[in-house]
Amino acid sequence: MFESPPFWMWIIGFLLVLGPLITVHELGHYLVARWFGVKADAFSIGFGKELAGWTDRRGTRWKLSALPLGGYVQFKGDMNPASIPDAEALKHAAPDEREGSFHFAPLWQRALIVFAGPATNLLVALVIFASFNFAYGKFEVSNSVASFAEVSAAREAGVKVGDEILSIDGQPTVDFADIGERVLMFPGKSVTLEINRDGERMHLPVKIGESVESDRFGNESRVGRLGIYSGPPTTSSVGPIEAMTLAVDQSAGLVKMMVTGIGQIFTGDRSIKELGGPIKIAKYSGEQLSQGPIAFVSFAALISINLAFINFLPIPALDGGHLAFYAAEAVRRKPVSARGMELAYRTGVFVVLMLMVVVTVNDLVSLPIFGS
After folding, report:
1. Measuring CA to CA, how many Å separate 118 from each of 29, 114, 136, 313, 339?
2. pTM of this prediction?
3. Helix (H, G, I), strand (E, B), or coil: what is residue 295?
4. Of 45, 63, 96, 324, which is most buried with the most CB atoms under 10 A?
């Protein structure tokens, strides 16, 4: 019988995860903009109606808004919180109005201001992972097969205990973690294992097994398994530099899994029902919070990488969309037309809203009250 933490823990976990991560994201934008002398009219955590706020001596309105699903920094010259320029106002702007305006800053400065938001989220995740690596050391597990699961695709393909798995489809597997990375996201895929058996190299074709697994809270995930177990891990201490290097590798692995997952949804290898939204984040946040600070902070690092990844997507209205426009401006030597930019942003907002509807429906259907 699965037990989910109480609903109030969902809310607390959600706020404790997204609140700080959204704040540091927007601070990334704000601090780089301030460094370049760009004025911020508003800094908001959340969207919609202002619940509380104050105005600082620079004229920036700092506020907490009603809908806690994001945030924004509205710079001088922005027509709205999405940083869409007010083309008419900019066209007739006086010299004093141009000073400190985001849209009159050099192209490279605008790009860095936009880039700083998701980059800050990546930095947060790296610091968390590096801290764990430094505190707990590096875990290393041999790529040799110690035993088999009851149902094992590898055993059926001819793998034996003691075999060392050298590569999967030509991609080296230095340790057991590499094997998981090559298998987890590819249930049902046919691959070739290169193994070392008593000094002899062999190639064995195998179809990765498919497994639907549940955690202690009943959350199901469809994963690939070879059905093999490793021997006991070894742990070695690491210094700050190696801890950060490992953190970069860990973060890159997570991003690769996200890219793979999205690609599989587009190709039909995975269902769009596997996408989650705010309700699922709240649910998972509460569950991880109930397991203690280490699990919760690890989950926060994962969400921070997700926020960075999503914001880097080249969708107008997201940071990646702005960067795409700046790239086009750099190539064309002139900005995209106001009409073209407006149409692109409207399309981007529509795509984001439709995606929010889809993931919210997925979230609702997956809740226990609907029998899932």
Report:
1. 9, 8, 27, 11, 27
2. 0.88
3. helix
4. 45
